[in-house]
Amino acid sequence: MSTGDSWIFKSTLKHANVQALNPEQRELVDAYRLGKLDEQDFQCQLLKDPALAKWVRQVLEAASREPLSK
Asked: Where are the chain's structural domains?
C-alpha cells in the first residue's frame, strides 16, 4: 500500500463503526489509525485475525462502493 493509500485507509477507518469489533480489535485499529502501529504490523495482525480482516475489507468496500478484488 502506498503512503497515499495508507492515509486514505486510516481516514476511512477513523469514521468506521468500530462497535462490531471486540476491545482488542478496536485497540489495534486505533493504534494503526494513530500511527502507533505501522503498516507492516497491521497487515500481520490482519493475517492473524480473519474477522478483523473481513471488517476492514467491508469498511473499505463501503467507502469505495466497489468490491475489492481478492
From this structure: 20-65
Provide the grid cell at 10. 486510516
Q: Which of 25, 1, 42 is nearest to 16 (CA)?
A: 25
Give the Å distances, CA to CA, from 38 to 15, 18, 19, 69.
19, 19, 23, 23
Identify whether the C-beta of residue 60 lies closer than 8 Å to the C-beta of residue 9.
Answer: yes
**pLDDT reading at 5 higher than 60:** no
Evaluate if residue 2 carries a pLDDT over 70: no
Q: Which three cell numbers stand for residue 4?
A: 497515499
C-alpha span between 20 and 9 (Å, rounded): 18
